[in-house]
Give the backbone structure.
Amino acid sequence: MLNQFSRTELLLGADVMESLHKKKVAVFGIGGVGGYVCEALVRSGIGAFDLIDDDKVCLTNLNRQIIATRKTVGQYKVDVMKERMLDINPDVKVNVHKCFFLPENADDFPFGEYDYVVDAVDTVTAKIELIMRANKENVPIISAMGAGNKLDASAFKVADIYKTKMCPLAKVMRHELKKRGVKKLKVVYSEEAPITPKEDMAISCKTGCICPPGAERKCTERRAIPGSTAFVPATAGLIMAGEIIKDFSLEVQKQKY
């Protein structure tokens, strides 16, 4: 019967679509990358989500985040993303967590219930904890490396963390994960050399932060504010979503044979 996922079913088949509807994906970080992961996955028929982010939509998010509009500035990102996802598919189940993921609150999340974990957070500490928790529960995870200070959306690659190059964040992650005995990790990373942002205090969040009142992490407290565009983080997010759908599809194919 014709439905909103019929065009996808023409490519993936009914068995895969039925499987996708039963999957639960946790997306940590609903920003420039994570927002597009959510967008593509809900449009692909994933049936349930946990969304984790403590940020509110800021005026400076308008240049790149799919949930950022003049109307949503000041609202929690997870709430805006949930509303958007329900507009796309009223049957989708979405739980929101208005917090920043840290080792201290990691026990609050049911990793054993997730079929896939998306790491779209900014800090190394949070990334490492996410990876360790997912590995402990034997849950697939895909991790976004640096998407800031880049202009070439065609430079993204999908690889194991130990086969990455050029990306400074990936270098740090390789070192930290090796110390912890992590053997592999699927990542999306860019081979473009990072661009040094222009030092213009007139447009810097470091000196003129306009985050909404009540924001947990003010720009003035951050070590560096990366430059970004509408197309680079979006590309990373869409690639990550594509990898997740591919992995779920392969899972169904393996069960058949």
